[in-house]
Amino acid sequence: MSKRYISGSAVALVTPFKTDGSIDTSALRRLVQFHKAAGTDIIIPCGTTGESPTLSGDEQIEIIRTVKDEAGDKIMVAAGAGTNATLHAVELAKNAEKAGAAAILSVAPYYNKPSQEGIYQHFRHIAEAVSVPVIIYNVPGRTGCNVTATTILRLARDFENIAAVKEASDNFTQIAELLEERPDHFSVLTGEDSLILPFIAMGGDGVISVAANEVPYQVKQLVEAVKQGNLTEAQSINRSCRKLFRLNFIESNPVPVKYALARMGMIEENYRLPLVPLSPENKVIIDNELKSLGLI
Fold first, then answer.
1. What is 8-230's CATH topology?
2. How much of the chain exceeds pLDDT 70, in percent?
3. CB–CB of 209/168 below 8 Å?
């Protein structure tokens, strides 16, 4: 693996549920079709935006297989397969590969707050267990610990199939270090929609996006505009989507984005505890923005 090919606009896909809590496979297929039409480059089911902590192992496999079947060869299907117990994370990664995932997104161990050596060993075991590319997911605001640039770069150099990082922080010192010192095969993507423009302008490869659930075409066009150096167009797209980027986190992700998709007629508004529906006042705020964008 000598070239970076994990790039562009990737969606951190929600998991649609029926009222009884089961997976809504019809809605899942509808979402995949939505992304095929919009030109999304990568679909990532079973990540934290897909409520992965509430999914069973069998459900993870079912979701990946369904997405892969509907996507065909048109879109890369990566898959969330992370947790904070290393042996369980290895099992999830193996299952995702067997289910057809072309890459694995694995979140840094949360709550445990391991040392950097512990984080290195965690991802080492995952990389050695699968043959597909592994994307490290660094999200300090949720995990309680930062995977440093030194650790990420060490992993990228030591394991050829550690192919990318989803850097979901606004630590531009760390981002710059990753971009400047990474090996040739290693992609750096932002996990923050509001940072797409500056991140890619610095040399980043793309985004793993929450907002792409609602506005996949716009996110794809924003990524492409920055890559092509068309900053006027990029600024225009960013300006129109900026408020939505922020409102998707008005409450814990993925509650706002699932509410928006329900209002757009894409899914039913169902969550798994401990997540609960959006507050009435925040529903009004999101409704107003969806109307402003012509989404409802």
1. TIM Barrel (3.20.20)
2. 99
3. no
Q: Global pTM?
A: 0.96
Q: Where are the beta strands (DSSP E) in 81-199?
A: 103-107, 134-138, 162-167, 187-190
Residue owning tokens 């072309």: 102
Q: Which residue has the tokens 């290393």?
A: 86
User: 1 pLDDT exceeds 50?
Assistant: no
Identify which of 34, 47, 71 has the alpha carbon closest to the alpha carbon of residue 266: 34
Q: Label residues 181-206 b or e (16+ Cβ within 10 Å = b).
A: ebeebbbbbbbbbbbbbbbbebebbb
Residue extents of the structural domains in the chain: 8-230
Q: What is the mean pLDDT of the chain?
A: 96
Give kind and range of the element (H or E) at residue 208: strand 206-209
pLDDT, average across residues 140-166: 95
> CA separation (Å) from 272 to 81, 139, 275, 281?
18, 22, 6, 21
Q: Which residues are catalytic?
A: 137, 166
- Which residue in this structure is represented by tokens 């969606």? 11
CA distance 79 to 93: 9
Q: Is the pLDDT of residue 114 over 90?
A: yes
Determine whether 53 is exposed, middle or buried from the number of CB atoms within 10 Å of its CB (0-12, 13-18, 19+).
middle
Confidence of residue 4 (pLDDT cuts 50, 70, 90): confident
